[in-house]
Specification:
The chain is mostly beta strands. It has one domain (2-268). The chain is built from 4 helices and 16 strands. A hairpin with a 5-residue loop joins strand 6 and strand 7 (104-113).
């Protein structure tokens, strides 16, 4: 059902910053910089839509922290869908904390439908020698170990920024983000397009901020394939333009049955504490 697919993995909260701003570090290493961003959502009428007549909503995002302190991200997505003439309001709130060295990840998510509780997820992941140890408290208690090569969402973002700067066109990694029940692991394939020079093309007013105007950006599409499912079709895909400081614009989230298009309507850099590593 399309409503189930609207409950997005926590990784989208990072990429939207789906990415948190990443500024150049001492050796050209991406360093996540705190900021707030808002995206207005509408149904993407450029693509076929099945089961959905219309959609509008908003994403509000905030990230803080650094490699020394770890990264905290909060994300809220409210979308009103029209399906067969009946409005449905989905409200998804997520928060997660990722250790700067990738050793641990904590996540929580709450979803309501038309104001009534629908889903709740709460758990953590800890990196061991050759595996990730997953401990989920909600929606049901669960402990298990998964592939130790999996990385968390902020590390995924950092690698994408580094790959784009290095003119790589493909980045394939395993990503764990506490999605849905906290059990899912994804193969994430990012396709990175040609560099867009600073000042090229028309952008929305929020993207004209001084912190963005002089930066290059790259078109990126990430397809997420659920590990354990034999399917050539991704569970969902995200397309956006990624600035070299990590902020994204021109968002499209494709659920298969329909897609949402997001426009960056507000962007605010926040104060950053210095991290020396």
């Amino acid at each position: 059902m399309f409503l189930d697919r609207l409950i997005l993995p926590a990784g989208l909260a990072v990429i939207l910053s789906v990415a948190p701003a990443a500024a150049q570090g001492g050796a050209g290493e991406p360093v996540i910089a705190p900021h707030r961003a808002v995206y207005d959502l509408v149904l993407d009428t450029r693509r076929p839509a099945r089961g959905v007549d219309g959609a509008q909503g908003r994403i509000a995002f905030e990230t803080s922290g650094n490699l020394c302190e770890g990264f905290t991200t909060t994300f809220r997505q409210v979308v009103e869908l029209s399906a067969a003439g009946s409005p449905v309001v989905m409200d998804v709130r997520t928060a997660h904390f990722e250790e700067g060295d990738g050793s641990g990840f904590r996540f929580t998510s709450r979803t309501t439908q038309n104001g009534a509780p629908r889903d709740e997820t709460d758990g953590s992941a800890t990196r061991m020698d050759n595996a990730l140890r997953i401990a989920v408290r909600r929606p049901r208690p669960l402990e298990r170990q998964i592939d130790g090569q999996a990385i968390f969402p902020t590390e995924h973002l950092r690698r994408m920024v580094a790959a784009a700067r290095d003119s790589q066109t493909i980045l394939e990694v395993k990503v764990y983000d506490g999605a849905e029940s906290g059990e899912k692991l994804y193969n994430a394939t990012a396709v990175i397009g040609r560099r867009i020079a600073p000042g090229t093309g028309e952008v929305e007013e929020a993207a004209r901020h001084d912190a963005l105007a002089g930066l290059a950006r790259w078109p990126v599409t990430i397809s997420y394939f659920e590990i354990g499912k034999d399917s050539a079709t991704p569970a969902y895909a995200i397309s956006f333009e990624l600035y070299e400081n990590g902020v994204s614009r021109s968002l499209v989230v494709d659920y298969g049955e329909f897609a949402l298009r997001g426009t960056l309507t507000a962007f605010e850099p926040l104060g950053a504490s210095e991290c020396r590593r």
